[in-house]
Design goal:
The chain is mostly beta strands. The chain folds into 2 domains: 36-138, membrane protein fhac (Ubiquitin-like (UB roll)); 213-473, membrane protein fhac: a member of the omp85/tpsb transporter family (Porin). It is 14% helix and 47% strand. The strands form 2 sheets. It has a 16-stranded antiparallel sheet. A 4-stranded mixed sheet has the order 2-1-4-3. A hairpin with a 4-residue loop joins strand 8 (183-195) and strand 9. It is globular and about 85 Å long. It is a multi-pass membrane protein. Pfam families: Omp85. Residues 165-476 form the Bacterial surface antigen (D15) domain. Its main location: mitochondrion. It is found in: Mitochondrion outer membrane.
């Protein structure tokens, strides 16, 4: 039979679905096996690449070659890898592998690549020379997004436009606008870029916002600010140095705004007095340090958190104070505990502005109290905040009986805290304490709580809340 008479080849049949779509467990098992097969193949390729090298011999990492970076400048990548290649010393294979891991981490932290694949190859002219070959796939440069965001007790409709790798050096340019129930309107423009061979990142930002304070004070705040930040990660934690210049204005007073002078700091003030003073200029430099070893942020099961923030406001403008906050937490599979505290020390006899004072109370910190309803209050309605505070919590998180795979968890808690201005008040005033239980879930990276409880101890001025309380946010007191 001639070749022209051969029957045409039948195309392969489409792959059959190996699971019943209604059987969730079988679908999950199928995906797990598929992922494990890919991981096994990747490990076999790595083993094949390393089989030609002897573990105890010495090698020299002579070059790093990156392919697939169409928009990333070669000179930028050279700066990134130069510290690893500059010494030119010979290394054992485990040391070479450690260097390749560092190369991978540096590229991944840039945030401009969606895929990274590394391998080692011998150089042609040097039998002891090795090259790190990196295949990358760049992420899309342009990104547009509209979303409904919830967090820290408020919701907002936001629009975001982002351009990555603007000039080929892993820069990010971003602009966003938002409309919400508490932050009524906001806009921000920021630019970010890696510095010093990506060992740090610098950021410049400008923003404006209008915030509704009527939930705890009879006013709104309008602010405009510019800021510069420098961030770096080390083995001991993340550090950030920032400077911010902002002008804030209190306005849109409600009829019930306080007009009496209340001794709420080193100098008495009222909401109407703050509004009549006009814009407040704040020039502040701050330094923060965070060490977070938790396995996740929404439902952590192990690890700890320690955060320190120090701020000085008074380079120029109407503010002059020192401010310090401390936050800590400790997590185990069923139990977690956390504590926060803060202190503002006025300088040059100036009162701490209402905008910069601490606020406490609400579903994300001391539960079963209304938002920002602890601490000094005038005779009518306004909570004026305080210069010192502390709060602590203990919570138990457990799966629902007979439903361990549900995304909802049972939650029990006890919270305590106090907001005040002088140390004498701390000695004479009992803390506000609340106890409750409820259900906890998550929406993406936002934690959602629905709790039922009651205050055990409360001051006469506290905004105590009994019954159901719903909380939305990212950071919660235990």
């Amino acid at each position: 039979m001639s070749s022209s008479q051969l029957p045409a080849s039948t195309p392969p049949a489409p792959p059959q679905i190996l699971f019943d779509e209604g059987d969730v467990e079988r679908q999950l098992l199928w995906h797990q096996n598929r992922l494990q097969s890919r991981l096994d193949g990747h490990q076999r390729r790595i083993a094949a690449d390393l089989a030609q090298f002897h573990r105890l011999d010495f090698y020299k990492l002579s070059a790093v070659r990156v392919s697939g970076g169409h928009y990333t400048r070669p000179e930028f990548l050279s700066e990134l890898f130069r510290p690893l290649l500059a010494d030119g010393r010979e290394r054992t294979l485990p040391e070479i592998l450690k260097c390749s891991d560092e190369i991978h981490d540096r590229l991944a932290k840039l945030g401009i690549f969606s895929h990274l694949q590394m391998s080692l190859a011998a150089t042609r002219d040097d039998p002891q020379g090795l090259e790190a070959l990196v295949k990358v796939v760049e992420r899309g440069r342009f990104f547009l997004k509209t979303s409904t965001d919830v967090g820290n007790g408020e919701g907002a409709l936001t629009g975001l436009a982002r351009v990555r790798n603007v000039c080929g050096r892993a820069e990010v340019f971003e602009a966003s606008i938002g409309l919400g129930n508490k932050t009524r309107a906001s806009c921000q423009v920021r630019a970010e870029a890696p510095l010093w061979a990506a060992r740090a990142r610098g950021e410049l930002a400008a923003n404006a916002s209008e915030r509704d304070f009527s939930g705890f004070a009879s006013c709104n705040e309008t602010s405009k600010a510019v800021a510069a930040r420098l961030r770096t990660d080390t083995a001991y934690g993340a550090h950030e140095l920032s400077y911010e210049l902002a002008t804030r204005t209190i306005g849109s007073l409600l009829p019930g705004a306080s007009d009496r002078l209340v001794v709420a700091s080193t100098q008495p003030f009222s909401i109407r007095q703050v509004a009549a003073a006009g814009p407040n200029l704040r020039s502040a430099v701050s330094l923060s340090w965070i060490r977070d070893t938790r396995d996740q942020t929404v439902f952590p099961t192990k690890g700890s958190l320690l955060k320190l923030v120090q701020e000085y406001a008074g380079l120029f403008g109407q503010t002059n104070y020192l401010k310090m906050t401390v936050e800590s937490g400790f997590v185990r599979p069923l139990l977690s505990t956390s504590a926060v505290s803060g202190l503002i020390h006025p300088l040059a006899g100036r009162a701490v502005p209402f905008n910069d004072r601490f606020q406490l109370g609400g579903p994300t910190n001391v539960r079963m109290f209304q938002m920002n309803s602890l601490g000094p209050k005038d005779r009518s309605y306004d909570y004026l905040g305080g210069e010192k505070y502390w709060a602590t919590g203990l919570s138990v998180l457990a799966p629902i009986p007979s439903k361990p795979d549900w995304p909802l968890k049972l939650h029990g808690f006890i919270n305590a805290g106090s907001l005040f201005n002088d140390w004498q008040t701390l000695k004479s005033q009992k803390p506000s304490v609340a106890l409750g239980m409820g259900l906890v879930g998550s929406i993406q990276d936002v934690r959602v709580e629905a709790n039922v409880g009651m205050p055990l101890l409360a001051q006469k001025s506290d905004g105590a809340r009994r019954g159901l309380q719903v909380g939305l946010g990212i950071g919660f007191l235990s």
